[in-house]
Design goal:
The protein is mainly alpha-helical. It is 70% helix and 6% strand. Helix 3 packs antiparallel against helix 4.
């Protein structure tokens, strides 16, 4: 191999171009063959496929390869993602060439998928043979060792034993000793062929023999699509549909390893590159297996899971606002240097924003035109043990009703996001005496409302027979609401009436009103809102409820304020002024989102809908998802959903996490920071490792034998929480200990040098630094316990098609004796997603397979949601740690 090609950032020289490009193509063909082996193994394209089916499959593969390579090439050409490695470029070109060749063969020749797979192996065998012989004849510049190594010889010897034994057994039968002779001869032959010649031949000729033999076996039909082998010593057998893909996977791994060694000239670099490629293909195999599981479950269950899904266009727009904010923040990321490719980089950054904008425009068009979007399809339900197809559709309707939860959640998310990006406006602007007096009075007013809330909570709205709720409570709500509205509007009025020379100067001068208006208004209105249901009042101005009307007006005022500051910022050139106006804009957006959330909270607390400008906020949302939002309907025209199982699973995970995480982290802190490292800590470590590897059914037996008799004697949600908590505890303890140990001792020493106590050091220094690792352990543990079935069957039961969900929050009540709080809901059985799937399987023909797949799909989505929450929390702590 030439020196010019050894450095991957330079172009190849002419004398090495054919050899290197050929090996790049051979490696690419191995990757394509490995992918085809996975596709055939899962029967996406059966080995016997031919004609139009085969052409369509390879056409799809060609489109995927050309699209991926083309997009990467475009990104490299525009310097968005520079690809300077000539090996990567060569393999990319080889992927296109290999896929085009296979597609042409599939379209022009009357061949089957199995024949093409065998042909791939034969071409690979020929390629590595030519590469090894070319190197041995010194036609190219390589640096092989004297031998491929003992490890390679042992590996090829083992492969030879297996292949020789299989061939001998097939020809002479396993009852004869000839199969053993064939196995030994093949194994010894490949072993010697690998270790005796020089590395270039020892790494290529054994590979060529093995891969070529596998390819000939497939091409000649010795092991074809209809081949079967049923050994008498085994209860099962082997089929061509399963063996052919395995042959291809093994053959392509070997050929990729050999071609990779040839590609970099053998020697130490060749072994490294070959191992790297094999490891990456195995990693790709694992990822592909996981992706296949997800895709398979999705394909099986997505139709049933989304039956009857309908959402109002306005609700969809509200749910889209957090995605819009994320897309805007991503698009605002600097595109890089101010050169010719900055525009291309910015184009890639605005693509998510463009996608969100396209969705928003689609939903707006539904609102404007009043025409719904519908995607009709059919799904199958079980009726009298027979499948029955029902018509359904996924629809986006022009309904302008927004549910309280779907309004509160995005609004709070936006408010928190804007608040976290908000800095400070202290010592900015001029505060008048009246503004200072109001600022001092607001906390007192909020405290007075909180005292009234506590009074009415303890004594009720009519203590001692006095109608204080309808009088004092009513007056307090009205006064607090009006005062909050006045505070919220005051910044806007102050900016508009200020005598500043410019809008930017007016906004900067009235900065004290911004914090007072937003935070003071939110605090007063929130306490007034909470006082309403406690006092049993709902003040109205004509037909309109006072609190949501003021909250809506305050949200509009805050949004107008943010708009004014944005306009002022565009007309200002001073850097400090622009920064201050940015902070005021963020504060205005905090107010807009916060007051909007209060509108939803009012409707949720009082149960009275609020309508303004044709938009209605109510507890009844325009989002309808029967599979998730309904319980099972025994005698309904449609089967309903699995909401009780979803709620049960969420409560199980929450309860187990609340039980295990504090105990696990606390134990990790004690064992790492306080306990003396010795036999005791070593014993605890052994015990926790043993507990983590204990089968889940053992935890279930423990719960059934020990916990249930002490928790009322019946299967219960609390028993399930504790059992899953015990399963989660060892992993939390293990990962927390390792994370705390990984915190550098310099952190502790620096804190001690400042005179900080040990506990303050642990709380303020060690735990924040270890938190990302702790959360990683919790994520892994939650992913395990959320899908556990065996222990839940023993302690929770397996309920098929539950008709009611457990009400944990509503089940709390005070009692006169210890522990003074009781909850009957925790001591009753509940449905859960894992046991729901098990119940469908156990029900046999009376169960609904489609509903089982849909339940599995929902379970997968719930687990991924828990992962997303955990990953978000871990990212937050990592950024916070890096920032500090």
């Amino acid at each position: 191999m030439s020196d010019a090609y050894a450095t991957t950032d330079r172009l190849v020289s002419a004398d090495s171009n054919i050899y290197d490009r050929g090996l790049d193509t051979a490696i690419a063909l191995s990757v394509v063959g490995f992918t085809l082996g996975l596709v055939t193994l899962v029967n996406l394209v059966p080995p016997g496929a031919s004609g139009g089916t085969l052409t369509t499959a390879f056409g799809t593969l060609l489109a995927v390869v050309v699209g991926a390579v083309g997009m990467t090439g475009l990104a490299s050409y525009t310097n968005v993602v520079p690809v300077t490695s000539q090996r990567v470029r060569g393999i990319g070109l080889g992927l296109v060439v290999s896929t085009v060749a296979l597609t042409v063969l599939a379209a022009t020749l009357p061949v089957t998928m199995a024949t093409l797979l065998g042909t791939v192996l034969l071409v690979e065998a020929l390629a590595v043979t030519v590469a090894g012989v070319t190197s041995r004849l010194d036609l190219v510049d390589t640096e092989p060792n004297m031998s491929a190594g003992l490890l390679s010889g042992v590996a090829f010897g083992a492969i030879g034993l297996a292949m020789g034994g299989a061939a001998g057994g097939a020809l002479a039968g396993f009852g004869s000793l000839l199969w053993l002779v064939g196995a030994v001869a093949a194994g010894v032959g490949l072993f010697l062929l690998a270790i005796l010649p020089r590395e270039d031949l020892g790494s290529t000729l054994p590979t060529a023999i093995v891969v070529g033999a596998l390819g000939l076996t497939i091409v000649t039909g010795t092991i074809g699509v209809g081949w079967q082998w049923n050994p008498q010593t085994l209860s099962g057998g082997f089929t061509g549909g399963a063996v052919i893909p395995v042959f291809l996977l093994v053959g392509t791994l070997l050929s990729a390893w050999s071609a990779a060694k040839c590609r970099v000239g053998f020697g130490a670099r060749g072994r490294e590159y070959g191992a790297f490629l094999v490891i990456n293909l195995n990693a790709f195999l694992m990822v592909a297996v996981m992706a296949t599981i997800v895709v398979f479950v999705t394909i099986k269950g997505v139709g049933y899971a989304f039956h009857g899904l309908s959402v109002g266009a306005l609700t969809a727009l509200v749910l889209l606002t957090p995605a819009l904010l994320a897309a805007v923040q991503f698009a605002r990321t600097p595109a890089g240097a101010n050169d010719w490719n900055a525009g291309a980089r910015q184009l890639f950054r605005v693509l998510p924003l463009a996608a969100v904008g396209a969705l928003a425009a689609t939903f707006v068009s539904v609102l404007v035109t009043g025409s719904p979007l519908r995607y009709p399809y059919t799904y199958t339900v079980q009726v009298n043990r027979q499948g029955q197809a029902l018509d359904t559709a996924i629809a986006v309707t022009p309904d302008t009703t927004v549910g309280t939860l779907l309004l509160i959640a995005p609004a709070l998310l936006l408010a928190v996001t804007f608040f976290r990006s908000f800095g400070s406006l202290r010592k900015v602007g001029t505060e008048s005496e009246r503004t200072g007096s109001v600022r001092q009075a607001v906390p007192t007013a909020v405290l007075a409302l909180v005292v009234l809330i506590g009074l009415f909570l303890v004594l009720g709205p009519a203590p001692f027979g006095l109608p204080l709720g309808g009088t004092l409570g009513f007056a307090a709500v009205v006064a607090g609401t009006v005062a909050a509205g006045g505070l919220a509007v005051s910044p806007l009025v102050g900016v508009l009436t200020s005598d500043g020379p410019t809008l930017a100067d007016s906004a900067q001068r009235e900065a004290p009103l911004f914090t007072l208006g937003v935070f003071g208004g939110l605090g007063l209105l929130l306490t007034a809102l909470v006082l309403q249901p406690v006092a049993g009042v709902n003040p109205q101005v004509g037909p309109v409820d006072l609190v949501p009307a003021v909250a809506f007006a305050a949200a509009l005022a805050s949004l107008a304020l943010a708009t004014l500051t944005t306009i002022a910022k565009r007309s200002s050139e001073a850097t400090i002024t622009r920064r201050l106006l940015t902070e005021e804009t963020r504060l205005g957006l905090v107010g807009a989102a916060g007051f909007t959330a209060l509108v939803g909270l009012h409707v949720a607390a009082t149960g009275v809908s609020f309508t303004v400008l044709g938009v209605s906020v109510s507890n009844a949302s325009s989002l309808s998802w029967p599979m998730v939002m309904q319980a099972y309907i025994p005698l309904g025209a449609e089967p309903g959903g699995i909401m009780p199982a979803i709620i049960g699973t969420v409560w199980l995970v929450i309860g187990a996490t609340l039980f295990a995480v504090p105990l696990g982290v606390g134990a990790a802190v004690f064992l790492t920071e306080y306990a003396e490292q010795g036999q005791f800590t070593a014993l605890v470590e052994i015990a926790t490792n043993a507990l983590w590897s204990t089968p889940s059914i053992v935890f279930g037996l423990f719960g059934a034998a020990f916990l249930i008799p002490r928790l009322g004697g019946d299967e219960s949600l609390l028993a399930g929480m504790l059992v899953l908590g015990f399963m989660l505890l060892p992993l939390v303890l293990i990962t927390s200990r390792e994370s705390i140990k990984a915190v550098p001792d310099e952190y502790r020493d620096a804190s001690a040098a400042l005179g900080v106590t040990r506990w303050e050091t642990i709380k303020s220094v060690v735990l924040p630094a270890a938190m990302p690792g702790v959360i990683t352990g919790v994520i892994l543990g939650v992913g395990r316990i959320a899908g556990e079935t065996a222990p839940l069957i023993l302690v929770l039961g397996s309920t098929l098609n539950a008709t009611a969900a457990v009400d944990v929050i509503g089940g709390f009540r005070f009692v006169s004796g210890p522990p003074f709080i009781a909850n009957d809901a925790l001591l009753t059985a509940s449905a859960s997603l894992p046991t729901q799937v098990w119940a469908v399987i156990a029900a046999g023909v009376s169960g609904s397979p489609q509903m089982g797949w849909a339940t599995a799909f929902i379970l997968l989505m719930v687990v991924l949601t828990f992962y997303a929450v955990g990953i978000t929390a871990r990212t937050y702590f990592r950024r916070k740690l890096n920032y500090e």
